Amino acid sequence: MIEPADSDAALLARFAQGESRAARALTARLAPRAYGVARRVLGDAAEAEDVTQEAMLRLWRIAPDWQTGRAQVSTWLYRVTMNLCLDLLRRRRGGSPGLDEIPEPADPAPGVVQRLQDTDRMDALQNALMTLPERQRQAVVLRHLEELSNPEIAGIMEIGVEAVESLTARGKRALAAALADQSAALGYEDHG
Question: CA-CA distance, 104 to 123, in Å (whole number)?
Answer without folding.
Answer: 8
